[in-house]
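Take a careful look at the protein record below. Let me know whether the structure tokens fit the sequence:
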Amino acid sequence: MCLSNVFLVSDDSEELVCEYASSVDVSGNEIRLTDVIGQEITVTGTILSVDLIRNQIKVKAG
């Protein structure tokens, strides 16, 4: 099972917004994250990077 932590990146910081994300759905600039227990979180922005080795996804806020 491959789960990732999702960080929201702004100009001067990174904030963990979803731990153990199991699903990422993108629609325009809205990104819906679903964690391993089924909780959904929606953030506005664009995906900057996906690191499958470190299990990290970085999203640029906005």
Notes: The mean pLDDT is 96. The beta strands are 4-9, 14-27, 30-35, 40-51, 56-61. Residues 4-61 form one domain. The two ends are 30 Å apart (CA to CA).
